[in-house]
Amino acid sequence: MRVDAHHHLWRLGRGDYGWLTPDLAPIYRDFELSDLQPLIRAAHIDATILVQAAPTEAETFFLLDSAESADVVRGVMGWAEFDAIDAVARIDALATRHLLVGLRPMVQDISDDDWLLRPALASRFAAMVKHDLVFDALVLPRHLPRLVRVVDEHPGLQFVLDHCAKPQLATGDISGWKADIALLAQRPNVVCKLSGLATEAAPDWQVADLKEPVDHVLAHFGPQRLVWGSDWPVVNLAGGYERWLAAAEALLGGLSAQDKAAIFGGNAARVYLARRGKRVA
Questions:
Q1: Rounded to whole angstroms, how far apart are CA atoms 155 and 22?
Q2: Burial class (CB in 10 A: 0-12, 13-18, 19+), 11
Q3: Where are the domains of the chain?
Q4: Per CATH, which fold does 3-274 belong to?
Q5: Phi, then psi, of 251 in degrees rounded to 5
Q6: Alpha helices in the chain, H assignment, sequence order
Q7: In 206, 258, 279, 280, which residue has its Cα 20 to 30 A from 101's Cα atom?
Q8: This prediction's pTM
Q9: How buried is 102 (Cβ within 10 angstroms: 0-12 exposed, 13-18 middle, 19+ buried)?
């Protein structure tokens, strides 16, 4: 079973995608499942995880409703207002939707770099553990030391590191990122999502430009704690679905068939779907 563990859908008219502006011309339009279907058919993708792109619960309900009528979407990674007084009740309510597999605060866009360390979040993390929800960490390299502390404080919560924490590949200086990734990977309740690297590289990136970060996360997380995702349609800013998939397959080409099957599907089925009782085959 091949799984795309990270893609989006959006409709501009919803009005809650503050980051999505006209200067991002290749993705500044509506994207529906009908746009994705030819790509996943060509890639032999059997199932997908649909991921939030707006910091609103309204968008999460929109995604859940959209997924209900799409057999290929096996799970939705949503968003909840973690800073709300009634945040735990909100998480409890969202968790009643059977396709919800986790929650993803958009930490990269929060002005307080220490937001993850707020004591009030402990009850929110506990609610996620109660419902077997995954915490997708949308963070930047500077957040990694904070994330390590949070992971240590919540060993029962499954974390997935989105986009390998977005190493600054275009600048060529990823030494600090490499050290923090090695530290984070020592925590067994963290999985790394192999996605988003092409958009962090230079516009004219080649497969070789992605080798160092891919080799690094593979060495530290191992093939059983990596999951592949397209980050479509954001990946259209950096070559598109097919190019990123081909690059990932080339970079992992030396692995055994079993390890490649894990990264391109098996691990996502285990981490996102099996824990919530979803159909995984």
A1: 41
A2: middle
A3: 3-274
A4: TIM Barrel (3.20.20)
A5: -70, -25
A6: 33-42, 57-68, 87-94, 121-130, 144-153, 175-184, 197-200, 211-221, 241-251, 257-261, 267-268
A7: 258
A8: 0.96
A9: buried
